[in-house]
Amino acid sequence: MRRSELVRLLDRLPAPARPRAELEQVVTPAEAAADLLLAAVRLDGLENRAVVDLGCGTGRLAIGAALLGSRPVIGVDVDPSLVRTAEASAATAGVDVDFVVGRVEEFDRPAELVLMNPPFGAQRRHADRPFWERAFALARRSVHAFALSDSRTFIARRAVARGAQVLELQPVDWKLPRTFPHHTRRRVSLAVDRWAIRTERSP
Fold first, then answer.
1. Cβ atoms of 65 and 37 closer than 8 Å
2. Is residue 65 part of a domain?
3. Would you say residue 203 lies in a domain?
4. Domain annotation covers residue 67
């Protein structure tokens, strides 16, 4: 699938209808999501790979992985309303994704690849850390994820501690539209990175 087509398909998926600030429910930009997914294709291959999307929200990464041939695909999120939206979107897109309501910290089903756009910790400090801990615990092959650039040291240290290898670390053009009542500007640029981390140890 061409990048332009993937961006167009992802951009059609709905945002949270009533986003909750305390959960940092923001939309992953379609362009950034496409680049993460295509990096996973290039570095790991997505076709017939088992994928988990931690904190899936309305399903943009999970549905994108399924569109690119991943199976099985599981998305987990604590918010039932977002899971319902994700389920409807997957049905509309014609892909099979198993969406689960639950806390990421308690999710224990491993997969070859973990994809995620976790909370950045803007509302609650270190809100992203349980997601990274789960990602490293569950990914048998690789983790593909977004994080604030301020988190580089933490993520790199966790990767080293797990015996993982950073394959790519790329800055992302991330513009957050006004989403919550406390946002005063129409759009703000964030310093965000896209990570590709190989968790599978070489034989």
1. yes
2. yes
3. no
4. yes
In a domain, 193, yes or no: yes
Structural domain for 134, as ranges:
3-198
* pTM, to two decimals: 0.91
**Sequence-distant (≥ 6) Cβ neighbours of residue 44 within 8 angstroms:** 112, 113, 141, 142, 144
State residue 191's pLDDT score: 85
* Backbone φ, ψ for residue 83 (5° rounding): -65, -40
Strand ranges across the sheet with 111-116:
98-101, 73-77, 51-54, 111-116, 139-148, 187-198, 165-177
Cα separation of 28 and 161, whole Å?
A: 28
- Give the integer Cα–Cα distance in Å for 60 and 116: 10
Mean pLDDT of the region 184-202: 80
Backbone angles phi, psi at 167, to 5 degrees: -90, -40
Instruction: Choose among 185, 191, 186: nearest CA to 173.
Output: 191
